[in-house]
Amino acid sequence: MIINGRFLTQRTTGVQRFARQLVLALDVELQLSDCRAAGLSFTLLAPRGTEPPAGLSRIRFRTVGSRRGHSWEQWDLYRTSRRATLVNLANSGPLLHPRQVTVIHDAAVYRAPSNYSLAYGILHRTLGRLLARRSRIATVSEFSNSELSAVLRLRKQDILIIPNSHDHILEIKPDDGALDRLMVGDRPYFLFVGSLTPNKNLGRAIQAFSLLGRSDAALVLIGATEQAVFRDKAAEAPANVIMPGRLNDAEIVALYRHAVALVFPSLYEGFGIPPLEAMALGCPVVASSIPPVREVCGEAALYFDPLDPWDIARGMKRVLTDQTLRAEMVDKGRERSATFAWSNSARRLLDWLMDRHPA
After folding, report:
1. Does 276 share its domain with 204?
2. Are 326 and 260 in contact (CB under 8 A)?
3. Are 58 and 119 in a shared domain?
4. Tens digit of pLDDT for each residue in 25-60?
5. Domain range for 154
6. pTM of the model
7. pLDDT for 144-158, tens place per residue?
8. At what angle do helices 342-356 and 14-30 cross, to 10 degrees?
9. Cα–Cα distance measured from residue 338 to residue 331, given in angstroms and rounded to the nearest whole number
């Protein structure tokens, strides 16, 4: 079997994190003597010049072709893998491949087209619809299953669910010096981790924080920069809103561990990895009440209406001022996060491959 390794050439977002961690978990599962797929052969194929993921033992790594991006996927990957079963983990795959499984993480390109450029939207909507006819489809949540079954006209029972997890975050040593470098000091702070796409709803989160009227607290926005957030506005970032841009994993782990809470105000998600990471690290989650976030967080999060800045502010105030509530949320969050594991997701995929795509 072949794994599409194009994700290794892309900037790491939730999709690429999923692909990398699932490959590592697959490798571990294949080492277990009781694994049904222990006798299968897997090769991770990537464009020439790509560095292999560290730690692979059973999954071989190979680079092929001379192209990059979609061209590499549609031709070089197809040509090399066409006689094997192909596993695509990051939303796309070669249309001509006769036997493949493709993980499409959400239906945002259909449901929220304004989040994307015209060319990107047309390409990926077309690609998704064609892959739905040429490939077995998998996704990351019950919500995305429902969404994709509707927009791609597939039966829900034909779409495999392979959830994200958080195990990777527990292996990272926190860089506590990040708090001093960001000048957080001893102030309590809320944390936002995510991109600046409209569905992340960052503007209302900033507005809600301002409504708190707490000059002694801070809001740290990971992935955001002042220029990007305020480029279309005359206003400047308030002094207690900190925007360090992209940070490394060790810095983010430190911020999770010391935050009052993660604020997750999304309007649309396929899953939502940051709340799961936060709960695993003992950080309470104050989150949008949309279905996929409720699916991930269960009863462990404090929910708000993402369209109402006052409701977001009320949730933030509760977790900031009620220490008993916060302690309960930490316990519930750790318990909830323990129900997810990359090993479980890897076994789901392996079992499905064995049933539907035998070697």
Report:
1. yes
2. yes
3. yes
4. 999 998 886 666 666 789 999 999 999 999 899 999
5. 2-165+341-356
6. 0.89
7. 999 999 999 999 999
8. 70
9. 11
